[in-house]
Amino acid sequence: VLAAADEVMRRADVQPDARRVMQLAETSGCTTYDCEFVEIAERRKCTLYTADAKVLKCFPEIARPLA
Questions:
Q1: Does residue 39 contact residue 17 with C-beta atoms inside 8 Å?
Q2: Is the pLDDT at 5 greater than 90, yes or no?
Q3: Where are the alpha helices (DSSP H) in 1-67?
Q4: What distances in angstroms separate CA 8 from CA 3, 12, 15, 49, 51, one per listed residue?
Q5: Cα distance between residue 14 and residue 9, in whole Å
Q6: Res. 67 pLDDT band, cuts 50 70 90
Q7: Contact 63, 38 (CB under 8 A)
Q8: Burial (Cβ within 10 Å: 0-12, 13-18, ≥19) of residue 3
Q9: 11: Cβ–Cβ under 8 A, 6 or more apart, which residues?
Q10: How far apart are the first and last CA of the chain?
Q11: Contact of 21 with 41, CB cutoff 8 Å
Q12: Per-residue pLDDT at 10 exceeds 90
């Protein structure tokens, strides 16, 4: 089971676009670490669920609260 899960995760591995991450961080004031998740969600056109208040405030079009 672990090997199968590892294979699924390996195929799903996505690297963030560093230039876009830097743009997002510069314009939002969020950390580049947080912006990596935002960039991937943005590119994949999916919702980013987070408890990070700053990410929720800066990226309301992508980020949604966990609750």
A1: yes
A2: no
A3: 2-12, 18-28, 32-44, 53-58
A4: 9, 6, 16, 21, 26
A5: 10
A6: confident
A7: yes
A8: exposed
A9: none
A10: 30
A11: no
A12: no
Phi, psi of 64 (to 5 degrees): -135, 145
In this structure, what token pair is assigned to residue 48?
């980013």
Query: Which pTM does this prediction carry?
Result: 0.81
Residue that the structure tokens 């950390």 belong to: 31
Do you know the residue count of the chain? 67
Span 30-63, pLDDT tens digits: 999 999 999 999 999 999 999 999 999 999 999 9
Which two structure tokens, joined as six digits, stand for 38? 């935002």
